[in-house]
Write a sequence for this structure.
């Protein structure tokens, strides 16, 4: 009798123990998931195998010599093998080209012009501004957002008149459409010029990583693409490639209608140096192909290219214990009213420090996979001195 009672008691205790452990585990999982979602984590699933379709991928453009440029498209597939469709052109000619996006068969055409110039760093015209950041190789996401917000039409042509389209860095890495995204930016840049508008491709830390040979965040696709091209991966954006030369002409900070735009931000220490925007861009540009390492010398160059405090890397507006005065010192240095930044993930576009800092890095949808939670793009529209969150469907919400 005693044994039966003891066994029943033990069984009840065991069941209570298992329930307790299960509930505790469930609570911990809930906390971990909630924490991850709060900080921008997501679960990707249902990857589309079309991402492995590389037929017609390109163009990959390299100088052959001082007078000739080679245009390369990848053809074929993994089952039958890959080969190159290559054609040579005179370096100073206008070269017809196309770019293909396999997910939905989109193909857009453009003309490659080897005359590359460094853009201005300051603009004053009171035209409207649309800014978006951290697309991370998402061609479809980028394209659809621009269509919804009337920057381009369904035929992918510029319709933003004399407006400014600001692309605030990290448009490369993490997905399979880096080539498509970069050529799309190039195409829109040329069209905007013809219509009186401007595309501002402001480099982020991931563009710099690619130019410096750091491919830790790059899709493995591009290792294989380089192999098919009989190149090292560093050559894809090297000084002998068109995309490399074009990207290396770009700025890392610009001022448009009194507002600064940069990928990371301005460290307060920068206010202690006598320097202007043109000099900032020149110093950083001279280091585009030089991997950063901490140097004992504490000078302006080290500050600007630092992977912690540098213009393209700084997260201090959201991570450090800054004061309003710290923020405004950086703005006053360049006679700016406010600053728009990407780089540091936000749950939605928002303002900080009494409207002086606007963070626009949000989680965008991926081209070739779905995610939990569902991700939707946002951008920043500045029009008639009003600031708006603009959504993936073209809806505007005043900030």
């Amino acid at each position: 009798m005693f044994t039966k009672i003891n066994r029943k008691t033990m069984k009840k205790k065991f069941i209570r123990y298992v329930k307790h452990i299960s509930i505790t585990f469930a609570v911990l999982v809930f906390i971990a998931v909630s924490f991850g979602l709060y900080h921008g984590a997501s679960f990707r699933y249902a990857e589309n195998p079309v991402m492995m379709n590389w037929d017609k991928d390109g163009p990959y453009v390299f100088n052959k010599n001082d007078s000739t440029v080679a245009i390369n498209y990848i053809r074929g597939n993994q089952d039958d093998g890959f080969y190159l469709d290559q054609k040579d052109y005179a370096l100073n000619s206008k070269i017809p080209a196309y770019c293909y996006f396999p997910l939905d068969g989109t193909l857009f055409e453009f003309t490659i012009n080897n005359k590359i110039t460094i853009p201005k760093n300051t603009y004053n015209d009171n035209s409207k501004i649309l800014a978006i950041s951290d697309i991370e190789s998402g061609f479809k996401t980028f394209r659809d957002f621009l269509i919804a917000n009337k920057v381009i039409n369904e035929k992918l042509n510029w319709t933003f008149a004399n407006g400014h389209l600001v692309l605030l860095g990290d448009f490369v890495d993490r997905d399979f459409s880096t080539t498509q995204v970069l050529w799309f930016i190039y195409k829109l840049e040329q069209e905007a010029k013809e219509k009186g508008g401007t595309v501002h491709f402001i480099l982020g830390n991931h563009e710099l990583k690619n130019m410096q040979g750091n491919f830790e965040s790059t899709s493995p696709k591009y290792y294989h693409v380089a192999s098919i091209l009989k190149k090292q991966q560093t050559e894809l954006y090297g000084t002998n490639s068109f995309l490399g030369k074009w990207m290396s002409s770009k700025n890392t900070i610009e001022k448009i209608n009194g507002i600064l735009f940069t990928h990371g931000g301005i460290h307060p220490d920068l206010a202690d140096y006598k320097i202007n925007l043109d000099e900032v861009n020149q110093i950083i540009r001279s280091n585009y192909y030089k991997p950063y390492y901490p140097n004992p010398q504490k000078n302006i160059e080290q500050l600007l290219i630092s992977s912690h405090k540098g213009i393209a890397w700084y997260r201090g507006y959201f991570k450090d214990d800054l004061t309003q005065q710290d923020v405004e010192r950086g703005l006053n240095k360049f006679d700016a009213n406010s600053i728009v930044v990407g780089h540091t993930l936000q749950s939605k576009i928002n303002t900080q420090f009494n409207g002086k800092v606007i963070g626009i890095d949000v989680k965008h949808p991926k081209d070739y996979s779905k995610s939990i939670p569902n991700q939707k793009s946002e951008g920043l529209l500045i029009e008639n001195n009003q600031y708006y969150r603009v959504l993936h469907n073209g809806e505007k919400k005043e900030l």
In short: The first strand starts at residue 43 and ends at 45. Residues 2-39 form one domain. The radius of gyration is 24 Å.
